[in-house]
Amino acid sequence: MLECGMLEQDKRALRRRSAILCKQLVVDELLIQSLQADEILTESMAESIMAEQTSHKRSWRLLLLLPKRGPRAFSSFCSALRETEQQHLCELLAQSPEKDSRETPVETIQPEEEPEGNAGRVVRQTTEKKRERFVESSYRLPTQEGIAAKRARTHESMEFSLDADSPINTPVLPCTPDFYLSHCQQSYRMTSSPRGLALVISNVTFDPCAATDLDPRKGGEVDDEVLRKVFTELDYSVTVNRDLTAQGMRTCIENFCRRSDHRTTDSCVVCLLSHGVEGAIYGTDGQLLQLDWVFESFDNAHCPLLQNKPKMFFIQACRGEEMDCGVEQIDGPARTCSPSCEQRDAGREGQGDATSRQRGDLGRPRIKLPQRSDMICGFASLKGTAAMRNTKRGSWFIQELNTALRLHSRDTHLADIMVQVNGRIKEREGYAPGTAHHRCKEMSEFTSSLCKDLYLFPKYQPQY
Hints:
alpha/beta, 15 helices
């Protein structure tokens, strides 16, 4: 009688790596489609996996199914990992048990806990029983990734490093001609090729003499590569600068603002990734660059080539030392107490308009613009709170921004994309058992002075 399940050696490899796979595996549509094409998964199986609410749960369900799907399931799974740029997991599965015993693991990870509450406790107890059967009992206790003892030296300048899911690699989905034609009139012009210039400044390694309290931002290099890829696919001309002093960042931004290319493009993007405090980010020399100066550099007075064009900013940095430990959700419908992202303007609406009306007939003066307009800025965390970064997969905020841009920029304007990012960040939870950061939370936010809908219209070029 032929063996209908997976080969025993392949089952052992999956069992041996199940905990790490549950944390690092990205189960997206591309991976599932690959397994369906190889007839490893049926359509109903694929639907049941993708119906799970979190990446962790999708990974867990897939790993429970694979051993029952025949002797080809393991090789097909490895092939799908390679196709979705998860080669590191494929190599992990190929490692021999002997090599494991010789090496001390940097991290040992178990699947995330289920939500608290009575229902969560029941599910968690059931899940724990499954884990006992599926994960070998020889695993060491899980440890937090990247939180060293010297963390106590300073909090305000640090992001906290925790485990999280991998960034997706799904190609940016294209905008359709029909969607463009039905939305272009009420939105910012976005037809130039390239769409605009994009600047990424990513500080990963800090001067150990000048910035003694600033640890390397492990995983920061993942973030800047993710941003380079996604904005290149969105048809931006991307420049990445890594490890700049505060003065180096100022010079870089000043040069970027003066580029003549802004005249012929429709927008611009600025991404700043570093350690930070409220209102400022650190250079590699431990000196601060004020964010208000950055925004001022792109306002209508200092960067006239970008007047009336959308300017997008994404800030991955802490804005304080407070750790968001989260609160227990009460029973019943979901409730929200999210802080508003608007800032009131002290009741000065209309004063400029009145002045303009008084002078409107005197020589027909030029139309005036506010000092600062047409900007949108996404922050990784709320004022006063810390941001989360995984030392291998990058930061939570950049991961979710990448995902949302790839999947939704085809038919969603940027303000709504940032709302989606907020929603995804709200759901995430740190996994660092035995530390004060276990089950910690983060909440991103954005501010906007956009005056129209901002659609990126990816991969669409109008025919004139």
